[in-house]
Specification:
The structure holds 2 protein chains of 2 kinds. Chain A is α/β, with parallel strands linked by helices. Helices cover 47% and strands 16% of the residues of chain A. In chain A, strands 1, 2, 3, 4, 5, 6, 7 and 8 form an 8-stranded mixed β-sheet that branches. Chain B is α/β, with parallel strands linked by helices. In chain B, the strands form 2 sheets. In chain B, strands 3, 5, 6, 7, 8, 9, 10 and 11 form an 8-stranded mixed β-sheet that branches. In chain B, strands 1-2 form a two-stranded antiparallel sheet. In chain B, helix 4 packs parallel to helix 5. Classes of the chains: A alpha/beta, B alpha/beta. Chains A and B meet through helix 7, helix 8, helix 9, helix 10 and helix 14 of A and strand 4, helix 4, helix 5, helix 6 and helix 7 of B.
């Protein structure tokens, strides 16, 4: 995994301060006759307690911060941690290669699968390449190509969702951003193979859903999934993007919210303090969840898989009926 | 010059021969309507008799949902269904106003429960399952009720094995219903996929405007996609794009004509010819 450049969100700061103090003491320790080990143990206990306290009661806006944390593991990190034989396949065969979506073949615990995922970058250069995880129509059309491949070769499909949204640019509009997403929704609903989507960071609107019409939907504990970003929501409602915190509360966009609504099948625990603190532990939890869900879905025939998916999404919505 | 002259075998009669009793001018509303495009002042009765298309410049003004169905279907053939569906507030959404109150006041103002009218009717005697957005209700935004109604229009077409027509006029998903609104995109697209088995046409008509989550789901999945002239159609709204690229958009960007030129829709059909074109499509494919 990438080397850690220190980055801390505002609410993690007290914890970060404590941790750097511990680090300092550790370095001083072992020097000429000085032993701070008692002090260190005490501070470590305190840090653990502080972490539990901070994370017990995160606001939705704080979860948004974690979901966007620049050190958060991305799609390729999870692919590396959980799959073998990864082979990336590129291009939509129409216009260009889009690096905001990675797609390819791999094995999960020995079994061949198809993987499609949105990919953010670390640092300016990689973020330019990945377009900050905002796919263009080409990315969705590449994804569609791989969905068809999964269906034809009867390979389970696993998708990773992590995008602020589909890219809103001139070229993207000209080449049919909306059409590309729409087609993916329908194609995904028709696949005769098990499909699982995992929101690992930001699930931004239609650009996320274009990877999300699956038999099972999972979310990492501190990820979000929403019809609109809190910033856009508040700029529409109040013409003021700075009220995003309020909009985040309104939108009820966390994994816990969505599990409560019955939209999400499983919330996958992250390492204490968020996935960026221990990507390996988080990946391990995720691997276990994929194994379980996949085993369940493998019991179903292609027809049953299509029906299960249809019924799942057909039932989504809240309204009353009046005589 | 063409080798052969055009032969028209089928011609749809106008939906109704009487110039459709225009709603009597409301208090404070004049006898005259001013065209927003050419500024011509037109006798309101003539304006409405012309289905809100400017007789001078051909500008297509907004048309209330119910009149859209009236002009499309055979007279008295429309049977409205799904009227029992009432929106809810699953998120407890509050901005300057509670979403619940917003729903109530919009119901009062429009007499509509939500932004979609659905049902069945006939076009030149051919039965169709049909629905239309009502832009006048919260910008035609799609929440659970709208999504459910669209899905039912599709499901009915599937069950009865008849063609399906949806008119879209919407800003997209309704943010006040959050993730439920988003999932309506998946729901309607999955319903359409099932409908494809019966091999009946689904015609999507895009009106001004058709953007966001509706454009990015069933509206762009039509077997045939028609649009009214100069309708704004696209994924992201122009304001969002301008903020992203930090420059002004070219004139005509995301309009029907622009999309036709780029191969993204089948045809642009003026409002007064829409019924005839729809009749033609469903008779050729249905």
């Amino acid at each position: 995994m990438a080397t850690r450049v220190p980055y801390t969100t505002e609410f993690e700061k007290p914890l970060a301060t404590l941790e750097s103090k511990i680090e300092e003491l550790k370095q001083l320790s072992g020097g000429a006759g000085v032993d701070f080990s008692d002090e260190i143990v005490k501070l470590e206990r305190k840090a653990k307690k502080l972490q539990v306290e901070i994370f017990r009661d995160l606001s939705r806006w704080q979860v948004v911060q974690l979901a966007r944390h620049p050190q958060r593991p991305y799609t390729l990190d999870y692919i590396q941690a959980l799959f073998t034989d990864w082979m990336e396949l590129e291009g939509d065969r129409r216009f260009s290669a889009d690096h905001a979506i990675v797609a390819g073949l791999a094995r999960f615990e020995g079994e061949p699968v198809v993987i499609v995922g949105e990919q953010k970058g670390r640092g300016t250069k990689e973020n330019m390449l990945r377009n900050f995880g905002m796919p263009r129509p080409e990315g969705y059309r590449k994804a569609r190509r791989l969905y068809d491949m999964a269906d034809r070769f009867r390979r389970p499909l696993i998708t990773f969702i992590d995008t602020p949204g589909a890219y809103p640019g001139i070229g993207a509009e000209e080449r049919g951003q909306a059409e590309a997403i729409a087609v993916n929704l329908e194609v995904m609903s028709s696949l005769g193979v098990p499909s699982i989507s995992i929101v690992i960071g930001e699930g931004g609107s239609g650009g996320a859903l274009a990877l999300g019409v699956t038999n099972k939907i999972m979310m990492l504990e501190y990820s979000t999934y929403s019809v609109i970003s809190p910033e856009s929501c508040s700029s529409i409602l109040y013409r003021d993007a700075s009220k995003a915190q309020k909009s985040a509360e309104n939108l009820k966009l966390t994994a816990r919210d969505l599990a409560g609504f019955g939209i999400v099948d499983e919330v996958v625990k992250e390492s204490p303090g968020g996935a960026h603190r221990d990507p390996h532990l988080t990946a391990e939890n995720l691997g276990g969840a994929i194994r379980r869900q996949l085993a369940d879905l493998r019991q179903l025939t292609p027809e049953q898989l299509v029906r299960q998916r249809y019924q799942k999404f057909r039932a989504m919505g809240v309204f009353t009926t009046e005589e | 010059m063409a080798w052969f002259s055009k032969r028209q075998t089928m011609k749809a009669q106008p939906a109704s021969d009487k110039p459709t009793g225009p709603v009597p001018a409301k208090k404070g509303e004049g006898l005259w309507t001013r065209c927003a495009s050419c500024n011509a002042v037109v006798y309101t009765q003539e304006w409405e008799g012309n289905w809100n298309v400017c007789p001078g410049c051909g500008h297509h003004d907004a048309l209330p949902a119910i009149r859209r169905l009236e002009m499309t279907l055979d007279p008295d053939s429309f049977e409205e269904l799904d009227t029992e569906l009432i929106p809810e507030d699953p998120l407890g959404f509050v901005d300057n106003k509670k979403y619940k109150d917003r729903l109530k006041s919009t119901y009062k103002a429009t007499g509509m429960r939500d932004a979609f009218i659905s049902g069945v009717g006939t076009i030149t005697g051919q039965p169709v399952s049909i629905g239309t957005f009502a832009f006048e209700f919260m910008g035609g935004s799609m929440g659970s009720v709208v999504g459910e109604k669209v899905a039912r229009v599709i499901d009915r077409a599937y069950e009865r094995r008849i063609p399906c027509i949806v008119f879209s006029s919407t800003g997209g998903a309704r943010m006040q219903e959050g993730i439920f609104s988003l999932m309506q995109m998946a729901k309607t697209s999955a319903a359409l996929n099932r409908f494809r088995q019966v091999r009946k046409p689904y015609v999507s008509v895009m009106l001004h405007p058709t953007t966001g989550g509706v454009a990015a789901s069933f509206a762009w999945l039509g077997d045939v996609i028609l649009a009214e002239p100069k309708a704004l159609i696209g994924f992201a709204g122009p304001r969002v794009i301008e903020q992203t690229i930090r420059e002004k958009l070219p004139a005509g960007f995301q309009r029907s004509e622009f999309l036709l030129e780029r191969g993204m829709i089948d045809a642009i059909v003026p409002r007064l010819q829409m019924r005839e074109r729809l009749a033609q499509v469903i008779s050729l494919l249905g």
